[in-house]
Design a protein that fits this description.
Order of helices and strands: EEEHEEHEHHHHHEHEHEEHH
Low-confidence stretches: 258-264, 266-276
Number of strands: 10
Protein name: Sulfate/thiosulfate import ATP-binding protein CysA
Pfam families: ABC_tran (PF00005), BCA_ABC_TP_C (PF12399)
Helix content: 25-40%
Bound molecules: adenosine-5'-triphosphate, magnesium ion
Strand order of the largest sheet: 6-7-8-3-9-10
Mean pLDDT: 86
InterPro entries: AAA+_ATPase (IPR003593), ABC_AA/LPS_Transport (IPR051120), ABC_transporter-like_ATP-bd (IPR003439), BCA_ABC_TP_C (IPR032823), P-loop_NTPase (IPR027417)
Keywords: ATP-binding, Nucleotide-binding, Transport
Radius of gyration: 19 Å
GO molecular function, one term: ATP binding
């Protein structure tokens, strides 16, 4: 599963864009995500971050540009085909089934992301029953990776906010992806939970996964990302290391927008001021 060539692009997008009626939500974005690294995508609300993930994962079809994944053009592939190639994602809003067990959630992740649709997974069609053993094994492997194997039998809703986020990540990992897209994984978490989630992401990357994440919590982004891509009004306005991006005038302007409302760009991992 680990990509054999570190620092070669896992994903490359070229002039990627999508228009919704009169709104160009993503415009001419060219960027690459190096294998085995963590890329953070940041930008103000409505910048196009989730839309960017929706394009990469095949939820939306781009109106311009190309997407290459591990050297293959995946621009026109559908969601399940993209999953099959090795891209998995979590969603900005929690999509776990709180009344089901942690294991059942991970198994749904495995089924939805492998051969059957959500309806099949929920209705347990014949084919699904046949695949039950395989799903269970895949789901347990995913739960082990996120440290939830011991909680497999508990209702997912009984877990902490961070535990539930881990369930969501396990659902994505159940398809055994090369690239994992996390949309605001630390939303709603306290500082301790955020630190714990950061270690999990680091462990996954140490195990060979490539990660891209959208996140507003700057301490997480600054402490975790190898590179940061900054979107503003759908366009890439900066790309670089956390240090480079945090002192980029265009980025500071995008966040502060001329109003000194205490934008988050100055915060480093230890809570200090990056510009001090
Ligand atoms: N399916 C859609 N139809 C029409 N407009 C959309 C659609 N999806 C997104 N948009 C618009 O595209 C723009 C970018 O939205 P997006 O959700 O990507 O922003 P974001 O950077 O993820 O913001 P946030 O930080 O608030 O999550 C917004 O103006 C949004 O209203
Ligand atoms: Mg979003």
């Amino acid at each position: 599963m680990p990509d054999p060539q570190p620092n070669t692009p896992m994903l490359e997008v070229q002039d990627l864009g999508i228009r919704f009626g009169g709104l160009q939500a993503v415009r001419d974005v060219t960027a690459s995500l190096p294998a085995g690294q963590i890329t953070a995508i940041i930008g103000p609300n409505g910048a196009g971050k989730s839309t960017f993930f929706n394009l990469i994962s095949g939820f939306y079809q781009p109106t311009s540009g190309r997407i290459r994944f591990r050297g293959e053009d995946i621009t026109r592939l559908r969601t399940h085909q993209v999953v099959g190639r090795g891209i998995a994602r979590t969603f900005q809003t929690t999509t776990i089934y709180k009344e089901l067990s942690v294991l059942d959630n991970a198994m749904i992740g495995h089924r939805v992301r492998t051969r059957a649709g959500l309806l099949d997974a929920l209705l347990r069609t014949g084919r699904e029953r046949h695949d039950e053993g395989e799903s269970r094994a895949g789901a347990m492997r995913a739960l082990e990776r996120v440290g939830l194997a011991a909680q497999a039998g508990r209702p997912a809703g009984a877990l902490t906010q961070e535990g539930q986020k881990r369930v969501g990540i396990a659902m994505a990992l159940a398809s055994d992806p090369h690239l994992l897209l996390l949309d605001e994984p630390a939303a709603g978490m306290n500082p301790e939970e955020t630190v714990s989630l950061m270690s999990l992401i680091r462990e996954l990357v140490a195990g060979g996964l490539t990660v891209a994440l959208v996140e507003h919590k700057m301490n997480l982004v600054m402490g975790l990302a190898d590179q940061i891509l900054v979107l503003h009004h759908g366009q890439k306005i900066a790309q670089g290391t956390p240090a480079e991006v945090s002192r980029d005038p265009a980025v500071i302007e995008a966040y502060l927008g001329g109003h000194a409302h205490g934008g988050q760009m100055g915060q480093t991992a230890d809570g200090g001021n990056a510009h001090a």
